[in-house]
Model the fold of this input.
Amino acid sequence: MKKIIVCIIFLMSFTMLGCQDNGVELAYEEPVTLEEEVIAKEPFTDPLLNYYQIDASLDPETSIITASQTIEYTNNETVDLTEIYLHLYPNAFTKESQPNLFGNSDEMSDLGGQIEITSLSIDGKEVNFLEGPTTTSVELSYAFKKNETYTIELDYLVSVSSTSERFGVANDIYNLGNWYPILAVYDEEGWNVDPYLSIGDPFYSDMSNYDIKMTVPKGYIVAGSGYIESLKTLENKTTYSFRADGMRDFAFVISNQFEYIKSQLNDTTVYLYYPKSVKKHKWLEDAMLFSLEAISSFEEIIGDYPYKTYSVVLTNFPSGMEYPGLVFISKGYLLDSIHALRTVIVHETAHQWFYGLIGDDEIDEGWIDEGLTTFFTAYFEIEYSGEHFYQDTMKRYQNRVNEYGFDNVVVAKSAKEFDNWGDYGVAAYSKPALMYHEIYTIYGDEKMKAFAKYIYEHYAYGILKEDDLREALIAIYGVEINELLDTWLY
Ligand SMILES: [Zn+2]
Done:
């Protein structure tokens, strides 16, 4: 519906201009507020992507988000579908079984997370929904014909658990990763409805467009994946209107404790959000500088960062976590070393290309984005800290792989097959990074950059699978690269 309004308003504005040129008087010189807002909206680059509109409000007294959401979903598959799935990731954060990244279970809480759908309709018709194959999914049965677009509307309540994980509140900072119902991906294996695993980043999603309103009490700062289109304060509440043009998820970090600094890099505004308690920390400007250097370097090596904003958020979190346009960085790194802070910022920034732009199935093939990210994080340092720095990093990875034994570490494995982060880390991060290191050592710098640009050109906004990666490597290095890949991946 909104798309149609946008077209009409655009037409109207062109008409107005045309009429003025001809000296014709206009009937509608004072558009109503709604129209003004719509006129201000820039069109999406790809209007055919699934489109999420969410109107949400966070009440910090109860840590509950009340939301209404519309998804304009188009069945772009080659078959008619009888059902689709939405992930409800907050349901993973029950009191009893919250996923915890690095075992900080003592922080887990009295308050569990949950998402409760209170109404759901498709094209205006109320539909029943069934629990999906996991507790973190829901199945919608309907006749979804190929190439047809459906409007899914739902109302829901989200309770935010009290923990410092991807989804949780601690010390008045709300980490809102994976907080809203998001469509599962349908691919050649059918629907991907995996549970929220405790290992890896267990997410897989398609590019979408977003308009999200988040209302918070006045004084709260909202950092989001997209850019802020408008900001309105009415009495004691502020509504942030965000838009994201072609992103595969949308995360927030919200707090009444935040301040931020910002800096401009070409068309992108880079924000660094931090709790006021660390406002005098001597590394804040360094953190901003690392973010700017990383974007600018990866733009040169891989391809353009196409978004208007990039937000680096120092928050309560065990390490670093990437979302499109926004990354969580543990504020604990400010007590660690400047090198650790730099590495994690560069790593999460590299994920804006590997996972963000060039997507992958992070459950079954998480090594694709983590391997590329780990390698290019080290590669970044060649220019900034020198070749020895890069070589030292690779030696560390080599030692880790040696500890396990080269043949004992199988890279091309699903996150489901691992039962601890140590094993997953060496398989999905260290060993594939070493594989690219070997390719770089044999074939040199120019080809490595050509490879990075190749996958950007062919897979930005899409999904890169193992076969695609092979094809890309063959395109750059020739068919003999297959043997090397088999040695390293299996
Ligand atoms: Zn990573």
